[in-house]
Specification:
The structure holds three protein chains of three kinds. By secondary structure, chain A is an alpha/beta fold. Helix content of chain A is about 50%, strand content about 15%. Chain A has two domains: about 150 residues, D-Maltodextrin-Binding Protein, domain 2; about 150 residues, D-Maltodextrin-Binding Protein, domain 2 (3-Layer(aba) Sandwich). In chain A, strands 7-6-8-5-9 form a five-stranded mixed sheet. A four-stranded mixed sheet of chain A has the order 2-1-3-11, with helices on both faces. A two-stranded antiparallel sheet of chain A has the order 4-12. Chain B is mainly alpha-helical. In chain B, about 80% of the residues lie in helices and about 0% in strands. Chain B contains 13 helices and no strands. Chain C has a single domain, classed as MetI-like fold. The two termini of chain C are about 25 Å apart. Chain C is about 80% helix and about 0% strand. In chain C, α7 packs across α9, α9 crosses α11 and α9 packs antiparallel against α12. Classes of the chains: A alpha/beta, B mainly alpha, C mainly alpha. Chains B and C meet through α1, α3, α4, α5 and α7 of B and α2, α4, α5, α6 and α7 of C.
Chain lengths: ~350, ~290, ~280
């Protein structure tokens, strides 16, 4: 009697567990039959590729994908569908490493793509696969201030004045926020004849004025724009342009004398593209970003086109006089991370972590 | 009621009003104001915008995923919750405290880690990915757990796992075991005891548990976001709201609040259903004197 | 011998093995195994590295912030949860059903929406935040803001834990005590409160546990300043994950888990002890 009960108990447990999993895998079947079209490339002549990108490029790729899909159909006569995925750049890179099925990645930082390369999903040498270090568009760091610039903020040294409240995201949690730090660091170095101690002093003062440190660029924009906090937001140029466009009479952009050239990078995720049979399409998708039509869309969406001619045609939108330093000035991403942002490195030192 | 003299009655009334006032103020500042703020924000661009924001392909698809995940999570957790609560309250055994605490673990796990748990099990870095691959190869299927619907469902079950059992346990504890023991000694079978003796005690707690579980499953973001990356396919409503909000244009922010209000509406529907249920039961029962 | 007999006696009720089997199977499959799969990553750290990571200043501060803020929030929730449950069970008044129905809303709202909305309302430019800041209390971007967010996400736990037990307590119970000459206050503390205590403790424990691990609703309102100590543990875990540092992230998560496990364990022991006393009575 007792034994029977025991067996019954175990069987029931097993069936229950099996049932709950069967339920899951059933729905898995449904979804994968849906997403197998998304993932396995050729299906009835229609090719689908997944582009894993980061937050601020949503509008850009929405328009670009449309353009590309049209172009592809005209050229090849067959259809292509691009599925987008957006999120924080670091998180997106992680999801690709963890198994999300991206054919191409278009991320904020070269470093994020390097991490995918190190996981063995992207062939080394990806940076030379496309023109200009595989970065078809660039951006930079600017200030967003309230209309009329009431605190008269013109350049980086205005940010360290007493009583200026800065909204600036946390470099420790957002890859993008590292650019903000590096740009101010470069300014301080140039101003003080490359004296690192003086530069440290400068950025210490600057980060002492930071009143809200959000976890990411978008959170910081929300804090500044929606919640009305702070006098100045240190932001991506494309984000700032977006905010000004959305609230035309409330904000203006101030471009500092020195900033940093941010080069969002693109790459084919070779392991997935080979598996899905989408190498060709993926390559065409990324190459097409460099064409004039695409570069125009890029400019319209607040990113700086790399095509000089087209960049000039947007000179009313972008301040072209700013001196832009490059990440190579800091010895590349890995060196910059190690020197500034790792645990116990300069950022921790100046911010009292 | 004659026992209560006038002074006592007055004091009682005063306590009543003070407590009600405190409750109302608390709820207004903490819950009603945020709610109003969401509704106001969602209607900023008018009703037409509101409805068109809710009827996009993305929102509808995410609504479907959310409802699917919620229903499965509620079913699994209700079955589990009743069984676990029975185990924890009707028996004394070694390791009881540990088991009871293990069940609570999903509450205290950072949602970030909860999502990661399934990735590190079934994802390409996880030990079970090989098993899934070989199953797929053997059966010719293409089952995916992470970055697909099953992962979303699993994460939802994970974060709501203890809700039902946690609601029932205190009630069963306060009732004790005497009635079940008596019934058992009189020869009643397990399920009969549960249905006839235990269930009447726990039905309200069960209902609260199911509602809490539903609400939490509807709103879960952190754990699911780690496992779901494709808008319009595996996104749940909270993820869609996040996507809309993160788009950053004034329109999409308003749309995000509209989608949030949709979750509030679903929660309200659940509430109405509960009230109907309660009302039916109350009507059946002899009306007990309340508010004395 | 005597002990064994007692154990036998206790299991008069059928279904022990069945329920034990199902409970452990589901718990393992859905929770413990996946969780173990991620937490093993923390063993990639050597004990020295582990110790250094856990005792780093920002990590310790984050633990302090998370624990203190969630304890305060859970205490406040216990008090208001009890009052709310009492009002909802014992009194009739217009709008009661609406009040009752609002309790679960914090769960249904995605935590990020809650966080964004609260941070906006309680910042010094919102309502009622501007009022509070005019009397010198800043809510958003301070510890108060964190506590507020945690109260918000935790209130359903305490209300809904107490409510069913309160509904079960027979009115005649207190009536009897009262007729026997006990004052109302005394009746409450001596008769009703002990009955409610285990449930209240459960609610407190759940709100606490939820608060310690909370991420979404907190990060928007906390300001995440390492300087002011407004980073919570989940935020630090995210920082590590952002660097693809699974080992550190899971190590911090593991410590957090151990702390919450200990807290919940104590609460469960108290609860079960109490329950035994009641059933022995």
């Amino acid at each position: 009697m007792k034994k029977r009960k025991k067996i019954l108990g175990l069987t029931l447990a097993a069936t229950l567990a099996a049932a709950s999993f069967a339920g899951c895998s059933n729905s898995g079947n449904n979804s994968s039959s849906g997403s197998s079209t998304a993932n396995t490339g050729n299906d009835g002549g229609k090719v689908t590729i997944t582009n894993v990108s980061y937050d601020p490029t949503r509008e850009l790729y929405q328009k670009y994908d449309e353009l590309f899909e049209k172009y592809y159909k005209e050229k090849h006569g067959s259809e292509v569908e691009v599925v987008q995925s957006h999120g924080g750049s670091g998180k997106q890179a992680r999801s690709v490493i963890e198994g999300s099925d991206a054919d191409v990645v278009t991320l904020a930082l070269e470093h994020d793509i390097t991490l995918i390369e190190q996981a063995g999903l992207i062939n080394s040498g990806w940076i030379n696969e496309f023109d200009l270090d595989s970065s078809p568009y660039t951006s930079t760091i600017v200030f967003l201030v309230r209309k009329g610039n009431p605190k008269q903020i013109k350049d980086w040294d205005d940010l360290i004045r007493d009583g200026i409240e800065i909204i600036n995201p946390d470099p420790k949690s957002s890859g993008g926020a590292c650019w903000n730090f590096l740009a101010s660091w470069k300014y301080a170095l140039d101003k003080n004849g490359n004296d690192e101690d003086k530069a440290k002093e400068f950025v210490t003062k600057l980060y002492a004025n930071v009143t809200v440190m959000d976890s990411g660029a978008r959170g910081a924009t929300t804090t500044f724009v929606e919640n009305g906090q702070g006098d100045v937001l240190v932001a991506w140029e494309n984000e700032a342009i977006n905010s000004v466009a959305e609230y035309p009479d409330e904000y203006e952009i101030v471009t500092p004398s020195i900033s940093i050239l941010a080069q969002p990078s693109v790459a084919i995720v070779d392991a997935n593209a080979d598996k899905n049979g989408t190498q060709e399409v993926a390559k065409e998708y990324l190459e097409y970003l460099y064409t004039e039509d695409a570069q125009k869309i890029i400019g319209e969406n607040g990113y700086r086109p790399t095509n000089e001619e087209i960049l000039k045609s947007f000179s009313d939108k972008f301040d072209l006089n700013v001196t832009l330093c490059k990440i190579d000035d800091f010895g590349g991403w890995d060196a910059a991370y190690e020197k500034f942002f790792d645990d116990g490195a300069i950022f921790d030192e100046i911010y009292g972590n | 009621m004659e026992i209560l003299d006038e002074k006592e009655l007055k004091a009682k009334k005063r306590t009543k009003y003070i407590l009600i006032a405190v409750s109302v103020i608390f709820i207004v500042f903490l819950l009603v104001l945020p709610l109003i703020s969401i509704v106001v924000n969602s209607l900023k661009k008018g009703l037409d915008f509101y409805f068109s924001a809710l009827s996009t392909e993305y929102v509808l698809s995410s609504l479907g995923v959310t409802l699917l995940a919620t229903v499965i999570a509620v079913i699994v957790n209700t079955i589990f919750g009743v069984i676990a609560a029975w185990l924890l309250t009707k028996f004394t055994f070694r390791g009881q405290h540990v088991l009871s605490t293990l069940i609570d673990i999903p509450f205290s796990i950072s949602p970030v880690i909860a999502g990661l748990a399934f990735i590190m099990t079934f994802g390409s870095l996880g030990w079970a990915s090989g098993i899934i691959d070989s199953i797929n190869n053997a059966l010719g299927t293409n089952i995916r757990i992470v970055f697909a619907i099953p992962g979303v469902v699993l994460a939802t079950i994970f974060v709501t796992f203890p809700f039902v059992s946690r609601e029932i346990v205190p009630v069963l504890n306060s009732v004790g075991r005497d009635e079940e023991e008596a019934a058992a000694l009189m020869g009643a079978k397990g399920f009969t005891i549960f249905r006839r003796v235990t269930f009447p005690h726990i039905k309200w707690a069960l209902l609260y548990g199911v509602i809490l579980c539903t609400a939490r499953a509807l709103g879960e973001f952190g754990a699911v976001s780690a496992l779901s990356k494709t808008r319009g396919k595996t996104f749940t409503l909270p993820l869609e709201i996040d996507a809309l909000y993160m788009s950053g244009s004034a329109d999409s922010i308003t749309a995000a609040f509209a989608a949030s209000s949709l979750l509030v509406v679903i929660a309200l529907i659940v509430l109405v259903l509960r009230n109907i249920l309660e009302f039916g039961v109350l009507n059946k029962k002899k009306k007990k004197g309340k508010d004395r | 011998m005597a002990l064994k007999r007692r154990a036998k006696q206790v299991r008069v009720i059928p279904g022990f093995r069945l329920t034990l089997g199902i409970t452990i199977a589901l718990l393992s499959l859905l929770i413990l195994i996946p969780l173990a799969s991620v937490l093993v990553y923390s063993f990639q750290l050597s004990p020295a590295e582990f110790w250094k990571l856990i005792t780093a200043k920002n990590v310790l501060t984050a633990f302090g912030t998370s624990i203190v803020c969630s304890v305060i929030a859970a205490l406040i929730n216990a008090v208001f949860g009890l009052i709310l449950a009492w009002v909802l069970v014992k009194y009739d008044f217009p709008g009661k059903r609406i009040l009752d129905g609002l309790i679960e809303l914090p769960f249904a709202l995605p935590t990020a929406v809650a966080g964004i909305t609260l941070s906006k309302m309680y910042s010094n430019t919102g309502f009622p935040g501007s009022f509070f800041s005019s009397i010198g209390i800043d809510v958003s971007y301070t510890h108060i803001g964190i506590v507020l967010a945690l109260i918000f996400i935790g209130i359903p736990f305490t209300v809904r834990a107490v409510q069913p037990v309160l509904e079960k307590i027979d009115d005649q119970y207190e009536e009897a005590a009262y007729i026997l000459g006990s004052s109302r206050t005394r009746t409450f503390w001596k008769v009703i409160f002990p009955e409610l205590f285990p449930a209240l403790l459960t609610g407190f424990g759940l709100a606490l546990a939820r608060g310690i691990g909370e991420y979404g609703s907190v990060i928007y309102i906390s300001g995440n300043s390492a300087k002011n100590g407004t980073q919570v543990v989940s935020y630090v875990i995210m920082q590590k994950l952002e660097r693809m540092d699974y080992a550190s992230a899971t190590a911090i998560a593991l410590v957090l888990l151990i702390i919450s496990f200990a807290l919940l364990f104590v609460i469960n022991i108290i609860q079960i002890r109490r329950a035994k006393r009641i059933s022995l009575r």
